[in-house]
């Protein structure tokens, strides 16, 4: 559709025929997706928008550094780079990890030693001063927080990481900007153009209509979804906080602005964009204003532009939604494999902690079976913990199939992980209690939630360590990009000092956002006897084994195998090199497993990759140790 006339129209923008051929060949490949998605969103405004987008894209293509252009070509030859078994992720706040961006550069060897090839630095683009939702209220997308360094420092860090095989990942907040962002400042100054960048209503009629079906994200400290602003004399849509103004993506100018921002940062060396709050960007009356079809068209259009200008760059969707909705962020039907390259598997994380508390994997099995197959060219982001709270995203339908009451089980999990449940090993904090729904989310570090903080005997300490290694084994073995949250490799406990910092005191998620402990990081290298050392050594071993297992390429999906024991989860991966069966015990009990449950998938013998032993599967019964984990493959 675009081939001949568009090529003739755009070729004069290139001095070099090879550059022209490169750009136009990519446009020929991805242009139809771009146009189709834009037309679905913007209708008859699409042609005018395309003229503006091509100007932006050609400028960014010419400005792209040579080493990044080479990376573009390499990624086109290996489009599965995010799916490789040696792709290990690490997530950190730059200041809490190493002080600033130059400090991070000095710690790259540490990351390499862990096997990291993907570094996600938490929000570092310039936020509003004071309270800023942990950096997610961005004031300037083209500047770095001054205490962290400069945009040039970011470029240098990206180059250093790239030279050592590590991809830089940054957050891109799409749903909103800070009240102090230039667009919002101009809107408050009365500029009609920028007022239309936001959702502003003169009275409560429309907001009240929307509120009937909208949930509250932060009911404790930001109730409602609209805020009155005196300067604009209107109600502004503010889903998250009063100082975060939701953007009007129905305005094509907003799309163009964000394409410029993305390409600017891509040319600075960002290789993966975490699309923050992507589910919320399209508003429709009578819905919860999440997961609307336009969201996926807009993402596919942005991705198409990136594939033309900077195909080394990937998108990761931060969409914490139900499985039936989540698959659309990777692409379903006409969008199959054309939206985001990666999405968080939040359900896996929730089920890890659920099964650990209940010692029961039936709900885990049901939740995984509810997921439709993902596109084979996409991957999951998998994690034990992250910077955010844990919301008990457990559907009543999944719970019912597992013989549970969803409301009761969610209540149990909040009690358990806040330490209120009798016999609980966990030490967490309740976050955002909603009395209307009974929803209580949980803050806490992986080590504290797994029992290490509360362990007062050597036996309890061993159990906590084994729980942590069990959780990491599953995220490393499921098939995707395992994302290690800073400090989890050192089993860092809850940091209660957040209460002494005024900007953090009201938000207990900072309890699991500690400062990196470099003393402990050094100690674990020479002493593996204390808990952090044992967790670190065990995790490094898991990573080492994973990196050498082609069975864990993310194009292959893990499938649930019905378990003969409710305490045990069994996952199967069918790879051309042979079957892989993963067996995990979620209890402190020694569990007998019937040999036939494994033989029917693996035959009479299997290699257990984590121990290096070959297992005889012919006995009538095999014994799985407490919190045991087996990675079994056919010989």
From TrEMBL:
InterPro entries referenced in this protein's UniProt entry, alphabetically: Amylosucrase, Amylosucrase_C, GH, GH13_cat_dom, Glyco_hydro_b, O16G_dom_2
Pfam family, one: Alpha-amylase
Taxonomic superkingdom: Bacteria
Residue span(s) of domain Glycosyl hydrolase family 13 catalytic: 91-529
CDD domains listed in its UniProt record: AmyAc_Amylosucrase
Protein name in UniProt: Amylosucrase
């Amino acid at each position: 559709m675009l081939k001949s006339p568009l090529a003739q129209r755009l070729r004069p923008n290139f001095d070099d025929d090879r550059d022209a051929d490169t750009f136009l060949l990519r446009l020929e490949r991805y242009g139809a997706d771009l146009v189709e998605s834009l037309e679905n969103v913007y209708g008859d405004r699409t042609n005018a928008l395309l003229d503006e987008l091509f100007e932006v894209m050609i400028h960014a293509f010419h400005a792209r550094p040579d080493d990044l252009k080479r990376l573009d070509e390499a990624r086109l030859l290996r489009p599965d780079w995010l799916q490789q078994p040696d792709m290990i992720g690490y997530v950190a706040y730059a200041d809490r990890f190493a002080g600033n961006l130059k400090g991070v550069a000095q710690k790259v060897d540490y990351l390499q030693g862990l096997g990291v090839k993907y570094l996600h630095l938490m929000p570092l683009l310039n936020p509003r001063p004071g309270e800023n939702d942990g950096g997610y209220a961005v004031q300037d997308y083209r500047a770095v927080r001054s205490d962290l360094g400069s945009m040039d420092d970011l470029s240098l860090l990206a180059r250093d990481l790239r030279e050592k095989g590590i991809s830089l990942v940054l957050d891109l907040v799409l749903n909103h900007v800070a009240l102090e962002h230039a667009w919002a400042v101009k809107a408050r100054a009365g500029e009609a153009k920028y007022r239309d960048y936001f959702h502003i209503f003169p009275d409560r009629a429309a907001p009240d209509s929307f509120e009937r079906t909208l949930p509250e994200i932060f009911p404790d400290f930001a109730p409602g979804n609209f805020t009155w602003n005196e300067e604009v004399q209107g109600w502004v849509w503010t889903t998250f906080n009063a100082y975060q103004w939701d953007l009007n993506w129905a305005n094509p100018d907003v799309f163009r602005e964000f394409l410029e921002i993305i390409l600017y940062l891509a040319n600075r060396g960002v290789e993966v964009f975490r699309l923050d709050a992507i589910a919320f960007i399209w508003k429709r009356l009578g819905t919860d204003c999440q997961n609307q079809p336009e969201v996926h068209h807009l993402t596919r259009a942005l991705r198409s532009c990136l594939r033309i200008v900077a195909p080394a760059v990937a998108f990761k969707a931060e969409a914490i939604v139900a499985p039936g909705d989540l698959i659309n962020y990777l692409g379903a039907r006409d969008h199959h494999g054309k939206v985001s390259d990666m999405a968080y598997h939040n359900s896996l994380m929730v089920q890890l902690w659920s099964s650990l508390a209940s010692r029961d994997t039936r709900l885990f099995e049901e939740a995984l079976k509810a997921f439709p197959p993902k596109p084979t060219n996409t991957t999951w982001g998998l994690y034990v913990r992250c910077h955010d709270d844990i919301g008990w995203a457990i559907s009543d339908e999944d719970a019912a199939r597992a013989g549970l009451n969803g409301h009761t089980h969610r209540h149990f999990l909040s009690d358990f992980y806040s330490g209120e449940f009798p016999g609980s090993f966990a030490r967490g904090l309740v976050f955002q209690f909603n009395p209307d729904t009974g929803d209580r989310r949980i803050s806490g570090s992986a080590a504290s939630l797994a029992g290490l903080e509360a362990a007062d005997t050597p036996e309890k300490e061993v159990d906590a360590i084994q729980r942590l290694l069990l959780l990491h084994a599953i995220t490393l073995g499921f098939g995707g990009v395992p994302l290690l949250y800073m400090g989890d490799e050192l089993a860092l406990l809850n940091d209660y000092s957040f209460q002494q910092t005024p900007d953090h005191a009201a938000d207990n998620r900072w309890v699991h956002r500690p400062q990196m402990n470099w003393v402990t990081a050094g100690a674990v290298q020479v002493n593996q006897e204390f808990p952090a050392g044992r967790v670190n050594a065990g995790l490094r071993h898991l990573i080492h084994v994973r990196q050498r297992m082609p069975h864990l390429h993310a194009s292959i999906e893990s499938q649930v195998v019905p378990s003969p024991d409710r305490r045990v989860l069994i996952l199967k991966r069918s790879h051309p090199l042979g079957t892989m069966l993963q067996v995990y015990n979620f209890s402190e009990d020694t569990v007998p497993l019937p040999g036939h449950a494994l033989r029917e998938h693996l035959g009479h013998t299997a290699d257990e990759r984590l121990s290096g032993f070959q297992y005889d599967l012919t006995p009538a019964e095999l014994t799985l140790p407490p919190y045991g984990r087996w990675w079994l493959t056919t010989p």
